[in-house]
Amino acid sequence: MTTESNTGPTPTDIIRHGEITSYQLTPQGSNYTFLVSIDLDGKETSAIYKPRQGEAPLWDFPSGTLYKREYAAYLLSQILGWNIVPFTIIRDGPYGIGSVQQFVDHDPRQNYYTLDEACADQLRTIACFDLVANSTDRKANHLLLGDGGKIWSIDHGLTFHSDMKVRTVIWDFCSEPVPSPLLDSLTNLREMLDRPADSLPSQVKELVTLLPVAELDALKRRLDWILEERVYPGLPGRNRRRR
């Protein structure tokens, strides 16, 4: 991820307020995804732009909502204090409104299957995040190894469905206890979701406003389930990945 400078606009400022000066369609995925350059006051940063009008129709997700889910996943990561999703906003671009996410400088040779044991705690956090967000499309290359060995989680368009339908490559931790600090974060979020909207912190209020009522209710049920079970689920007959 681009390092923020002490002088001039930061990368997040640029993404919020800058002009998209170039855009290149990336070949991956069924939805239109662009690598864009954004300029503000002579400072430039790269980002990933996913316009609403470039989303392919799906039978199980409402049309034109995937970009909102990208932003909702970022909000969830920030609310929980886990900082695993790159900075993301909703804004206009060359093809209309969409999500714009800060580009992560990463080693493209690395993915879930190449990560070693030193990454296990970060993967535990992401696996817990996938349960809460109901990630239905966690692929190996949706985990980016960035600077300093930090793992970033990307591609969250297929999240927050009201039906529980987690699909993921991360099954390393089945039957293990969810770490206490993660449970503490989930407990705090669950308590906030029962408070009146006008008393919520700004990011929680945004998340509550962004999700339809059925999906917000489902989020509460998933939190209740995780906090009751307190272990990572598994699939019958599924073996852990060898490291």
Labels describing this entry:
7 strands, Transferase(Phosphotransferase), domain 1, single chain, alpha+beta, 5-stranded antiparallel sheet, 6 helices, 243 residues, two-stranded antiparallel ribbon
Structure in words:
This protein is an alpha+beta fold and 243 residues long. It has a single domain, classed as Orthogonal Bundle (Transferase(Phosphotransferase), domain 1). It contains 6 helices and 7 strands. The chain has helices at residues 11-17, 66-80, 120-133, 180-192, 202-210, 213-229, and strands at 19-25, 34-40, 43-51, 88-93, 96-102, 143-145, 151-153. The strands form 2 sheets. The chain has a 5-stranded antiparallel β-sheet with strand order 1-2-3-5-4. The longest helix is centred in the last third of the chain and has 17 residues, at 213-229. 33% of the residues are buried. The mean pLDDT is 93.
CATH class: Mainly Alpha
What's the story with the biggest beta sheet? 5 strands, antiparallel
Kindly estimate the percentage of residues that lie in beta strands according to DSSP.
15-25%
Calculate the mean pLDDT score and round it. 93
Give the H and E element order.
HEEEHEEHEEHHH
- The count of domains is 1
Q: Looking at CATH, which topology would you report? A: Transferase(Phosphotransferase), domain 1
Helix and strand content put the structural class at: alpha+beta
According to DSSP, the number of beta strands is 7
Number of continuous helical runs: 6
Q: Tell me the distance between the termini.
A: 26 Å
* Outline type: globular
At CATH's second level, what is the architecture? Answer: Orthogonal Bundle
Strand order of the largest sheet: 1-2-3-5-4
Helicity range: 25-40%
Cα-atom Rg, whole angstroms? Answer: 18 Å
Which stretches are low in confidence, meaning pLDDT under 50 for 5 or more residues running? none
